[in-house]
Recover the amino acids of this structure.
């Protein structure tokens, strides 16, 4: 089974620039999660979304890469039956003419 979380949007401190450390900026997260579904076990995408948001907001990471690694760790810790995860974090407002970000999968 695969669940998707598309364009989870919130504000957080994330980045190394002075202005990024002072004021929360818009963060967009996308996730694709594969796991073995049974009638007795499913993954609640609302709980995953809440975990993603709280991890990034509380972490106040310097680098997107650090945030992605921490997210993988936390998601696997809380949802051990996940087989594969793809995560993407974007910062749509940091540069005027493009959206920047990074992604990870395992």
């Amino acid at each position: 089974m695969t669940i998707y979380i598309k364009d989870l949007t919130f504000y957080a401190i994330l980045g190394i620039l002075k202005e990024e450390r002072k004021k929360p900026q818009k963060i967009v997260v996308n996730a694709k999660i594969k796991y073995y579904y049974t009638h007795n076990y499913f993954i609640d995408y609302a709980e995953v979304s809440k975990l993603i948001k709280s991890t990034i907001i509380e972490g106040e990471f310097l680098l997107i890469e650090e945030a992605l690694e921490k997210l993988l760790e936390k998601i696997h810790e809380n949802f051990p039956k996940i087989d594969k995860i793809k995560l993407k974090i974007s910062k749509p407002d940091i540069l005027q003419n493009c959206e920047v970000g990074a992604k990870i999968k395992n």
